[in-house]
Backbone:
């Protein structure tokens, strides 16, 4: 709830600050009239898992969760197609890096229930190759600012996922390919020679990415019980991007 309130306040303050300004000379006034333009994007992300437990976890009193959030980075190219005065179609192929720290603990005394080499957390690293396709709705431009909303889909492939179980360093198997829905908002700032944008986006996986075995059907002989604690896992991300176009 706090996150929703903060987001709404940010939007309200942004709109008030933009529409409360007096008219002045516009930078690059024909920028949005181009049928197509290109750019690049740099950003930060935090990756999360939504974990649903099964009956075995409930019976044994085991809780599986994430310990804190570790920032990652995003690097993307931008291809923007103008559809209408207020609508653009955008493709942002790129890569993103991050990790999630999972833990398996006894719910009564919070004692880890997995091998000692993992310490208190099991690190699940991700290196995504991704291809978002997004529809951008832009408000009317005022001076050198233009807020917008964005939404669409993203196909991600995790290059860090091993094709076969690594029995020395792996508790669970995650499917490398997933489709995400994405929604967000941002503001374009028109500078003298280019357009700069700050964008906040929420990305949510649409399928269960937990796998009980690898592509060869191999099961982890010692770690199968960890997979058995979980019914499903979906991937979620929050992404703060800085666009240069």
Residues:
């Amino acid at each position: 709830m706090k996150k929703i309130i903060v987001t709404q306040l940010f939007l309200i303050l942004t709109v008030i600050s933009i529409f409360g300004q007096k008219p002045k000379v516009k930078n690059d006034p024909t920028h949005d009239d181009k049928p197509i333009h290109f750019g690049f994007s740099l950003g930060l992300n935090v990756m999360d898992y939504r974990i649903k437990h099964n009956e075995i976890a409930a019976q044994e009193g085991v809780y599986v969760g994430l310990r804190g959030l570790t920032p990652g980075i995003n690097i993307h190219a931008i291809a923007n197609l103008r559809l209408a005065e207020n609508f653009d179609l955008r493709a942002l192929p790129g890569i993103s890096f991050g990790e999630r720290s999972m833990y398996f603990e006894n719910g009564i005394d919070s004692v880890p229930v997995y091998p000692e080499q993992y310490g208190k957390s099991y690190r699940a690293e991700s290196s995504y190759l991704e291809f978002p396709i997004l529809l951008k709705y832009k408000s009317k431009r005022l001076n050198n600012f233009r807020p917008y909303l964005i939404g669409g889909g993203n196909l991600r492939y995790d290059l860090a996922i091993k094709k076969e179980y690594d029995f020395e360093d792996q508790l669970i198997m995650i499917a490398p390919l997933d489709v995400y829905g994405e929604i967000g908002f941002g503001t374009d700032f028109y500078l003298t020679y280019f357009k700069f944008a700050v964008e906040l986006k929420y990305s949510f996986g649409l399928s269960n990415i937990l796998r009980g075995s690898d592509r060869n059907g191999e099961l982890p002989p010692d770690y199968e019980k960890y997979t058995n604690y979980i019914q499903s896992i979906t991937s979620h991300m929050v992404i703060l991007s800085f666009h240069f176009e």
User: Anything to note?
Assistant: The chain is about 10% helix and 55% strand. The chain has one domain: 2-244. The first strand starts at residue 36 and ends at 53.
